[in-house]
Amino acid sequence: MSYRFPRFALAAAFAAALPIAPAFAHGPTPHKAEEAVTIARPPAEVWKAVADFDALAKWNPAVKSSVASKGNAPGSERTVVLAAGGELIDSLDTYDAAAMSYGYRLYQENVEAFPVSYYTAELSVKPADRGSEVVWSARYYRGDTHNDPPENLNDEAAQKAIHDLFRAGLDNLKQTLEKKDL
Fold this sequence. Notes:
182 residues, Alpha-D-Glucose-1,6-Bisphosphate, Chain A, domain 4, alpha+beta, seven-stranded antiparallel beta sheet, globular
């Protein structure tokens, strides 16, 4: 004779486990950021300003210096020293001069300086009405990937850091390149 577990006992065991479920809730969700700017200059001229992987400091005032180990070759590592202090290391994944775009990822984080634990990003230049459009996008995770991060490493802090970095660069690029018309 086989023993059958009563259905009500199975249901009771399941119901008892439900309050534990939130303790095992998933960690951070990846976020997306995209910033763009239209610049009244030809795409080739805009691309020339942003094309070098190690030239970030030349057009982004939020960056004090940026040096790449292998230039624009995939696998090149770029050390980014932030103007506010701290250092990040990015790794170049793709580079396509003909398409005027490159993609990279955070290779070494520094959440004290930049509250993001990981990102992949792409920078591209495209023709647009009366000039060019520069699009800088990223997929990223907040600085603390645990369920209850401190305020300085939460989703909002990561979002602000990414958007501020992108906006500082794109706004300065527009101002600098369009000033050439004066």
